[in-house]
Design a protein that fits this description.
Number of strands: 4
CATH topology: Alpha-Beta Plaits
Structural class: alpha+beta
CATH superfamily: RRM (RNA recognition motif) domain
Helix content: 25-40%
Distance between the termini: 23 Å
Length: about 80
């Protein structure tokens, strides 16, 4: 919801968890439905997440595949 509010076009967001412990690994994934939102997000280089007493700056975005591949996966 935060990433969609900031950049728009979010079609998937998830938190990576350890399969055995079912505990968050400290990483997440976001897929965008359009290139404009994707470029805006990676250009920002970080996002400030605030929820209650938690204030966290997420400062590293990694990409594994071009946005067009990600969009295609969600269409199939």
């Amino acid at each position: 919801m935060i990433m969609d509010r900031l950049y728009g076009g979010v079609c998937y967001a998830g938190i990576d968890t350890d399969p055995e412990l079912k505990y968050p690994k400290g990483a997440g994934r976001v897929a965008f439905s359009n290139q404009q939102s994707y470029i805006a997000a990676i250009s920002a280089r970080f996002v400030q997440l605030q929820h209650g007493d938690i204030d966290k700056r997420v400062s590293r975005f990694h990409t594994k595949s071009p946005v067009s591949d990600t969009i295609q996966e969600f269409r199939d």
